[in-house]
Specification:
Protein name (chain B): Cytochrome c oxidase accessory protein CcoG
Number of strands of chain B: 15
Order of helices and strands of chain A: EEEHHHHHHHHHH
Low-confidence stretches of chain B: 269-279, 282-294
Helix content of chain B: 40-55%
Helix content of chain A: 40-55%
Organism (chain B): Pseudosulfitobacter koreensis
Shape of chain B: elongated
Pfam families (chain B): Fer4_18, Fer4_5, FixG_C
CATH class of one domain in chain A: Mainly Alpha
CATH architecture of one domain in chain A: Orthogonal Bundle
Mean pLDDT of chain A: 93
Number of domains of chain B: 3
Number of helices of chain B: 19
Protein name (chain A): Cbb3-type cytochrome c oxidase subunit
Radius of gyration of chain B: 34 Å
Strand order of the largest sheet of chain A: 1-2
Low-confidence stretches of chain A: none
Keywords (chain B): 4Fe-4S, Electron transport, Iron, Iron-sulfur, Membrane, Metal-binding, Transmembrane, Transmembrane helix, Transport
Strand content of chain B: 15-25%
CATH topology of one domain in chain A: Cytochrome Bc1 Complex, Chain D, domain 2
Mean pLDDT of chain B: 87
Oligomer: heterodimer
Largest sheet of chain B: 5 strands, antiparallel
Largest sheet of chain A: 2 strands, antiparallel
Amino acid sequence: MTERKTDDVTGVETTGHSWDGIEELNNPLPRWWLWTLYLTIIWGIGYTIAYPAWPMISGATSGVLGWSTRANVAAEITEHEGRNAELVAQLVAVDMPALPQDPDLNRYAIARGGAVFRSNCSQCHGSGAAGAKGYPNLLDDDWLWGGDIDTIMYTVRHGIRNTIDADAHYSEMPAFGDILEPADIDAVVEHVVSLSSPTFDAALAEAGAVVFADNCAACHGEAAQGDRTMGAPNLADAIWLYGGDRETLHNTVEMSRFGVMPPWGPRLKEADIRAVSAYVHSLGGGE
Amino acid sequence: MTTQPDKPLYAARTPIFPRRVNGFFRRFKWWIMAVTLGIYYLTPWLRWDRGASLPDQAVLIDLANRRFYFLWIEIWPHEFYFVAGLLIMAGLGLFLFTSALGRVWCGYTCPQTVWTDLFLLVERWIEGDRNARLRLHKAKWDLHKWRLRVTKWVVWLLIAVATGGAWVFYFTDAPTLLRDLLTLDAHPAAYVTIAILTATTFIFGGFLREQVCIYMCPWPRIQAAMMDPDTITVAYRDWRGEPRGKGNVKNRKAAEAERAAIEAQAAGAGSAFYAGTPYPGQKTPPSTPLTMATTNEKGDCIDCMACVNVCPMGIDIRKGQQMECITCALCIDACDDVMAKIGKPRGLIDYLALSDEPAERAGAAPKPLWRHVMRPRTILYTALWLLVGLGLLYALFIRSEIELTVSPVRNPTYVVLSDGDVRNIYDVRLRNKSGEDRIFRMNLSSEDILRIDLEGKDTLNVPVPADTTVLQRVYVTARAGDPAATGDTTDLRLWVEDLSAQVRASKATTFNGRGAE
């Protein structure tokens, strides 16, 4: 027999537990509390029958109500698509340069395009569209192939220098390591540096200007302002896709660059292509 | 190692049949019930004209549109600190009242108390007062009992439905919702909410009653912790009432004579005639002084059980402070009534501060009420309460009809443009809290070194429809070579001006240059 203690003041039996000299009384629980406990147990059993619950060898019991989070998400997506159907129809039909004249549609397109961008484009261009080395920054005002909405949409749809879409933007810069002497490459690099930097070797740059005019101006233009029809970058501005230091430029001239972007036409819905184009156009550089 | 419980692990509820009582506190409680229930049921039906584009319900929690309307005040989600402030005030108010007046919240204004009181009123009206209800409780389930019980339950249910119904009216336009509810066109959430609140009102008010206070509610424990000896609470003056007994009126004269004799004998024994204050739930009353055992002297308590019979919690206040006591003060009314009948002064059971006990026991006058109420604690609570309240009022009155929030885009922190200029991007939310469409003009400080442009706009004007927020992408550009472009950060302030109302608002932010690149 365990010794049973009784509280002196109340005459109630204690549990024997004591904290700082305060003993816990062993008063009976209310019976409705017990019934509530039984009720919750019954509810719990019913719950595991109604909903997916018991783990099996592969998967779990599906529950008699057939409830599934995946099915719910699918239903919700369908529901939202249904609600947006009218806007989607307008977006697919609209003449894209005229999109900003319809503020509601424009807002919808940009919001939708932001979601498309974060899912499909951010891997290369960054979640903030700031790009990375070799992947253009989409926030600035410099465009390789053109920054008006229709050109952006063309680029998204067909991509750049890929082998999948015959209509992709295409151009190829030769690797001048096979064509020019190393000294000429150094000279032309110095010339390119001189176009946007205050510190350069004037004599070397002057020599480079000749090399540039003979080899580079065909694509990049005589003033090195670039040519969007062939995606030739402007070499006189402050923006560098791969870097503007002499070593990087030397690499670029010697070995060339060949940036590739996949075509999104086969992968995205028409509305998504239009939306993501509107989004990119709205980031600050749209023309 | 066996234990044989001599009492069950689970106890059934002991039914309580509070008797009707009349008196000052009962009348006060009827008034409070009328006012609180009136506020609760009628508030959703008050109208307040806010113009054509806004709802005209005086108090409306518009969850769908994320707005809270209270008379002339409209709270947006980002101003939720007003609600937080009101909750802090409610908490401090509870601290103040509890430290000064004990569990007055429980006894007078707690919905559980008010609705239980209302349900008891119905119960008395249908089944009769305490004795009739006791008889009915013990009676067989015959037609008479069924008729009374079903009538009572139906009336309870109607009150419960009205209670659940009134709740949902706070969340949408009340007249429209009432029509929809009656034509079964309302949203399922409305019906489900009404059903749940009907069930809780019916069960808590009709059947669980004091069990809610004793077993479910955390407030009693918290409030008990906030009481101290100066707190005014409902208590029994045992030094005046004990020893209790049925015959103390009849024997008064004999007792007085005897007392005089005893006092003469035992000069110096003084106030030792009376028993000490019993502890809560004390099993056996403290032993009475020997000199009293043989006397006819009795206290003022005639043990009529009136205080026990009126108690909605089913306790005996004469046992001392108990956690069940909600200080509803009905026992005070019941006892005062009896004291008047037997020609004794009122207040055998009364609101008093426990710190006065030694003085009263010694026959001295208690401290005046205000000295119990005015204490550093209560003054501090009042000061804090006022501080928060005035702060909220100040925030309310300096609110502008237009507002902006500025979220600098930090991915990336800056963009270099082709001519070498450095651009920062800001997502600016412009709020038009007025009931009319407005045109806002954006601008910025340090115009000499920074340029502002708006995405998709040739001007700096942004139209913002009534009662909406517009997200505008704002570009701020520093010229290449400028200190702002080459430096680390530059402070700037974005301004927005309502062209029609001549109201301005601004937010400070920073401009990131290329820094130590």
